[in-house]
Amino acid sequence: MRLSSFSRVVLAAVLAAAVAGCSSSGTSSGAASSGASSGTIKIGIDLPLSGADASIGIPTQNGALLAIEQANKSGFAGGAFKLEASVLDDAVQGKHDPAAGAQNVQTFISDPAVLAMVGPFNSNVAKSEIPLTNDAGLAQISPSNTNDGLTIGDAAKKLRTAHPDVNTYFRVCTRDSKQGSALAQIAYQRLGFKKVFVIDDNETYGKGLADVFDASFRGLGGTVLGHEHITSNQVDFKSLLTKVKSLNPDAVFFGGNTSTGGGLIRRQMGDVGMAQTPFLGGDGISDAEFEKQAGDAANGAYMTVASPDVTKIPAAKSFISAYQARFKSSVGPYSANAYTAAKIEIAAIEKALKDNGGKMPTRADVLKNIASTANFDSPIGKIGFDANGDTTSPVLTLLHVVNGKTQVVDVIQLKS
Amino acid sequence: MRFIAPLTARLPPALRTQRAGTALAFSAALMLPFIGRNGAFTNFLADAGAFVLLALGLNIVVGFAGLLDLGYAAFFAIGSYSYAMLASPQFGIHLPFWVLLFVASAIAALFGILLGAPTLRLRGDYLAIVTLGFGEIVPQTFLNLSQWTGGPNGIGSLDQPVFFGYRFGFNPLPYYLMVLGLIALAAWLANNLRTSRLGRAWMAIREDELAAAHMGINTTSTKLAAFAMGASFSGLAGCALASKLQLVSPDQFMFNVSVFVLAMLVLGGMGNIPGVIVGSLILSALERFILPQTTNFMHGIGLNIDLTNSRFLIYGLILVMMMLFRPEGLIPSRQRKAELHAGQGDRRAAAAEGELLTETIR
Amino acid sequence: MDVFFQQLINGLSLGGIYALIALGYTMVYGIIELINFAHGDVYTLGTFFSLGILTLLGVDSVVHGPALVGVLAITILGAMILCGLTGVIIERLAYRRLRNAPKLAPLITAIGMSFILENLMLYWRGPSPVPFPQVIPNPQFALGAVTVQAKQIIVVLLAVVLMIVLQTFVYNTRLGKAMRATAQDKDAAQLMGIDINTTIALTFLIGSALAGAAGFVSGMYYGSTWFFNGFAAGLKAFTAAVLGGIGNLAGAMLGGFLIGLIEAMTTQFISDQWSNVVVFSVLVLVLIFRPSGLLGESLPNKV
Asked: Of the residues A34, B283, B345, C236, which has the maximum number of CB atoms within 10 A of its CB?
C-alpha cells in the first residue's frame, strides 16, 4: 500500500526512535546481574562538571575517582569484580540544573550495575533526585549538599513519598541549619557584628542558608537591617549596594554561590565604597573562583566550609599526597568529602559482597550497610550517619581572606 | 491491509493514505516502550511527549496564525503551577488529575486571552517582544511570590494521576500512554481547526493581515482565538509533565524553553502538524541521546569536545540555517513553502507553486 | 533623601549604557523594521574585544598619565571597529536574504543569531564572569552627601557625546540623508539612486560600533564581564528604545536614562528582585498604551 509522504516520514521517525531506544539500553549491557559472581560494579557520580561550577565540581569528582582507583589497585573483591565510575554532568549551559540531575539519576537507576552513587553537589539538584533514589532504593551520598530540607522536617518527608520509612540519601557535610546558626554565632559573638544586611541568590541553598542565618542572628540579639534576593544572571548590584550602604551595616551576609553572584557582589561593594565592610558567607563562596571574581575587594571576606580543613588533619596527609600525585593539582574544598563518600560506598559494597558469598549484592544490601556506617575512618575525621542520613560529627571551618589569600581561622566542632 | 479498505472506502485517495498513515504511526508509537529494554527510554518518551504537546500548541500560534510568540514558556509555567497548586500539599487541595487537565488548560487559555487582548493589535515584531517580556515576567513572579509558589524550591510532592483506581506511581509507562493520548487529542483538534473556517481565517491573517481584515475577518478575535488555543495546549502539557515529575520550579520555564520549542517548529515545519511532531522528537532526541552519545564517542576517539553543552548553539544554528535555506521546515506544508519563498525571487516561488500543482494532480 | 540622589547617579550611569545600546537598536529598527536580537550580544562582544585589546596592550590595572589617552583611544576605537564589522557580517549573512520575507523569518533568525553569539562567547571565555582591568583612575567627587565616581561621569558623558555625534551625522551628512531616506521608504530611495545595501550595512556598522563602545564602558564600570550580559541588557535597552520612541535617536537616549533610573529606584524603594519585572512591565505597558513612545510620532499603518 502506498504511504503518503507524511506517513513515510513519521514511520522513519518512529524507527529512528526505536533505534535510539535500543542503543540507549546498551548502557546496561555488560553489567553483572544480581547473583553473578563476577563482572562490573559501578558507582554513579553526578556532579556539575562544566560551566561555572566546574572549578569546584571537577576536583570533587576527582576525590571520588581516586577512591575508586585505589580500591581497584588494592584488590577490590579479590579481583572478582571490577569497580567502575559512571560519571555524569548535571550542569546545563554553565549552571547546575535539577532536571539534568534527575535525568542522570534515572540513567543510574536503569543501569543494574550501579549499586550506589556519589552526588549531587547542589541542594536544588538533590531535591529533584531524592524522590527517584528513594523509589529505586539506590543509595546516594552527597559530598556537599547542605540544605536542611533534604534530611529533616516536612520537606524531607515529602521527598520520600515512595518509601517513607526508607532513607537512601546521606551526606558527609554539615547541614545549613547548623552552618547558618554557627555563622550567626560567629558573626555576633566572635566577630562582634551587631547589625547586618542579608542578601541571598533566591536559590534553594542560598536562600535556605540566609533564612537560617537571619533567624539565628535575630535570636542572638542582633539586628537584620534588611533581607533582599538578587535575580539570576544579575550583573549590576550597585543600586542594591547603595541601598545597603545607606543603612550602615557592620557586615553583609551573602547566602549563595560564587557562580550565582557572590564574587561580583563583593567586587561591587568595593566600587560603592564598602570595601572595609566585612563580607560573610557560607561554603558557596569558599572556592578559589571567589577571590578571582571579587578582585581586590576579596580581602575582608569570611566564609565557612561545611567540613574540616583537610590540610590540618594528619590522617588526611596521605590522601592529599595521593591526590596531588594522581591529578597534578591541589585538592578542592570538597575532594576529601567525595573521597570519603566513595570510600564508604566501596566498603559497604565489599561487605555486602562478603555477606552474599561473593555474589553480586543488591542495592538494598549496599544501602543497609551505608546506613549503619559509624566511626568510619576518613580524611575528614570519623564519619557516621544518623537515622536521617546526616553526619554524626558536624564540623565547620572558618576562613578569612587576607592579602589575597584564604587563611584558616578556626575549625569548629558542632553538636550533632 | 484488507480490513482497512472497507473502513476507508468512501474517502478520497489522499485522505485514505493519510488516515492509514496516522493509524500506523499511532500503533507504532504504542509499541515503542516495549522496544527499548529499559525504563529510561520510556521515561524519555514521556518527557518528549509533553514537548510534542507544547510544539503543537505553539504551532497554532506561530504556524497557523503567523504570530511570533517568544514567551510561550510562560503559559507552560502557568499550566504546571496550576496543577501544582491544586494537587499537592501546598494548599491542601487535591483535585483529580483528569479534572485538572481541563482546569489547567482553561487557566492557561485565560491568561492567553489576558495577554492577547491588549497586545494583539500590535505589529508582528512588537508582539514578539511583548510576549518575550511576558515570558520573563511570569517565571520571575513565580519565583518571587515564595509564599504561594515555594520560591526557588518550587512546589513538590505533587499528586500522581489515578485512573479508575490505578495510581500511576513512579513507572513512566502510564505517563507515556497518557501523554500519547493527549497528543492524539491535540493533533486531532489542531487538524480540525486547521481545516475549519477559523483555521482558514488564521491562514488569511498570516498571509496578509490587512487584506484579511478587508475581507471581513475580525482580526483581533481571530488572533485572540489562536493565542487562547495555543495556550490551552501548553496548559495540558504543563499539567501532564508536572504530574510526572511531581515537582515544579521556576527554572523549568526560562527563555531557553521558549526558544527550544520554537526551534522544534522551525526544524520540523511551521504550520504542518506531522512536521512539528517530528521536529519536536528530533530535538528531544538530540538533547537526550544524540549529543551525549556523540560526546562519548568523541571522548572515545580522543577528542575532548563536549557537545552536550553545545545544544543551545545548535538550536541557534538550526534557527538561522533553517530560516535562510529551508524556512518551511523539514516536512513542509506546501502552502507555507510557497509563502515563505515568496520574497526570494520568482524562481523559487514558481518552483514551490509547481510542486503544489503536481502534488494535487498525482 | 541623600540615598535618592545617590541612586539617581547610579541610575544615570546604568542608563547611559542602556542608551548606547538602545541607539543601535533604534537605528536598525528605523531602517529595516527588524528587532536585531543579536544586538545585545554584540554589546557583550564589545566587552570581550576590549578585554582582548587591553590584554594585548599589557594593561591589567589602572593606567596613569598620557599613556591613558592612547590606551583609551585604541581600546574604544578597536572595540567599535570590531563590533561594527561583526554587525555588518551578521547583516550580510543572516538578514539580507530575508529582507523581503515575511517578518517572522528575520526575527527568528535574529534569535538564532543571538544564541549563536552567546554560545560562542561561552566557549571563548568560559561561563564565569571574567575580570576586566580598571584602566581609568577612579577619583570620587563629593557633592554634599552624594559621591560621584569619575567612571560614572564618563559613562554618561560618553553616551551623550556619541548621541550628538550620531545625530549630527544623520542629519548633516549625505550618508545620513541616505539613511533617513531608506528608513522612510526603501523603494523610493532606491529609485532615487541610493544604494540601499550599502546604506543598511552602514547602519549596522554604526549601530554595532555604538554597542562596542557601550561594551568597553560597561567592562570598565563593573570591573568584569560575562558571556550572558547581553541578554538582559539587550532586552532592557530595547525597552528603552521603545519607551523613547523607536526610530528616534534622542528618544533612545532618553529612554535609556529613564530605564536606568527606573531600575535603580525600584531596587531602592521596592526591592531588587522585582526590578526586572518592573522594567519588563514598562515594556509591556508602553507597547500596549503608547507604542510610539515618548518622543515618537504615531506612524500610520502603511498600506
From this structure: C236
